[in-house]
Amino acid sequence: MKNYIITIARGFGSGGREVGFNLSEKLGIPCYWSQILSMASEYSGINESLFELSDEKLRHKKLLKKLSVAKNTDKIVEPSDKDFTSDVNLFNIQKKIICELAESQSCIIIGKCSNHILRNYDNVVSVYIEAPRKACVERLKKYLGVTDDEAASMIYQTDKYRADYYRYYTGGDYWTNPTSYHMTLNSDRIGIEKCADIIINYLKISGKM
Q1: Nearest CA-CA partner of 111 in 9, 4, 180
Q2: Which of 75, 92, 187, 190 is spaced 20 to 30 A from 13 at the CA atom?
Q3: For 156, how many CA atoms within 13 A lie in the half-sphere containing its CB?
């Protein structure tokens, strides 16, 4: 049977990553999150710390100010090129890894513009997981031991840099655009495990698994 891919975008504190791990356990397929960074580092020879610094964020303030559209988001440049460790090239290397995963195995990919990168693949189901701010704050307080104000600040900052990153590399699309996903789920109302069940049911109904 043809392989299938589930991409998960998530608001910070919504539990989207946990949904991915739950799906991985239920379906018996790998879930890729930070592993993409190490795989990109191994492929390119670029230190993994550089991939971590640009993980779903724009490193350079000039990009944040302009929020222009990234150019040449396909070509990976050679090590001798001055742009070898640029944000765009780091993105392109991760993009190559994501496409190769989509073509070779069934898996779950969390974040990294994967829904946009794989938008033309017919074996992909893209999901956006979100929850009300109060629920996200409570989740962060529970798991990180932070205060209400600290949690709220973390959510604001993280969601902002994820949104900026997404807009930059998708040519201006906005991260929470519901038409960019097969479905959007409220993890607070539905629950982590049931979110995973709904996604699995959709895979079956759509004939992708």
Answers
A1: 9
A2: 92
A3: 6
> What confidence category does residue 93 fall into, taking pLDDT thresholds of 50, 70 and 90?
very high
Give the single-character DSSP code of 69.
P
Side-chain-side CA neighbours of residue 32 (13 Å)? 24
The DSSP secondary structure of 85-112, one letter per residue, reads: TSHHHHHHHHHHHHHHHHHH--EEEEST
With contact defined as beta carbons under 8 Å apart, do 108 and 24 qualify?
yes
Distance separating alpha carbons of residues 55 and 34, to the nearest angstrom:
9
Write the pLDDT tens digit of every residue in 7-38. Answer: 999 999 999 999 999 999 999 999 999 999 99
Amino acid sitting at position 169: Y
CA 25 – CA 27 distance, rounded (Å): 6
DSSP class of residue 59 equals -
Return the bridge partners of 125, or none.
6
